[in-house]
Amino acid sequence: xxxxxxxxxxxxxxxFNNPVLGPVFRQLYFRQALQHLVDETQWxxxxxxxxxVPTYSPVPTGVANPFADSLxxxxxxxxxxxxAKQLLxxxxxxxxxxxxxxCIRPGMASNECGAGVSAGTALTIPLLFASGTTSLAQEMxxxxxxxxxxxxxxxxSEAPFSKVIASKAPSSGPxxxxxxxxxxxxxxxxxxxxxxxxxxxxxxxxxxxxKVVPETVTLIDNTHTAPPSESQAALDAYQNFxxxxxxxxxQPYPPYQLSEIASNLKGVDQSPYGNLTPEYWYYTKS
Length: 286
What we know:
By secondary structure, the protein is α+β, with helices and mostly antiparallel strands. The protein has ten helices and twelve strands. It has one domain (2-283): Roll (Dipeptide-binding Protein, domain 3), CATH 3.10.105.10. It has helices spanning 22-25, 28-36, 40-47, 70-74, 81-89, 134-148, 161-167, 198-201, 214-225, 231-245; strands at 2-4, 8-14, 93-94, 102-103, 124-130, 153-159, 180-182, 187-188, 249-251, 257-259, 265-266, 282-283. The strands form four sheets. Strands 2, 5, 6, 7, 8 and 9 form a six-stranded mixed beta sheet that branches. β3 (93-94) and β4 form a beta hairpin. The radius of gyration is 20 Å and the shape is globular.
């Protein structure tokens, strides 16, 4: 068995336009808390047979490349239920382990819940994920269990990949009630081979998410316009901001597939871009 690793990263998304939960998702401290509850190391060991790589930024690390810097390889929001709890408590939430935490200090001060978060807002979050993959279902069940320890009630449901993708289409208004969506495949760069994230996190893009931060757009634009001598510095600024900003919930990135390749089949190249090149394959005598 040979794992085919793609040049990409894995994550799920929050609905920043949800009329109740959107203001909560827009708080950096809350996104940090969500990330602290992802036990990537344990998920890789328990559910992904040690074959996946952790994700900390949109710049891939599973395939050797010159783009990822040291922070993209280590991250800054490691698994910690205690830190997730501390972030909630220090920002005005009454944390109820195995219950539902609520906002008790609304407002915009540094020790309050944040802009747009009303008193009594409850941390009950629907999470729709793609059906058909055992490891993804295990990961989401594990996340639900850990989140419950800080009073975040995750209501899981599953649906075919196409429905999950459709659910996160940009929208707004009182009917935009989905909470989080996880299609289980993340994103692979190809034919957009430079991991600048413009097609995901910039403004006016068809596959973009509903939260666009002006600083993100500027940093992405800089990766496109920097002279060659400054291109890596521009990419480093972008990826480090995306680690700290946590605009999505990063999760382990498993191989695209496990390939069985006959020992006498030569010329096989498992492309990190998912390309097949059978014109280069040939057999030798056993």
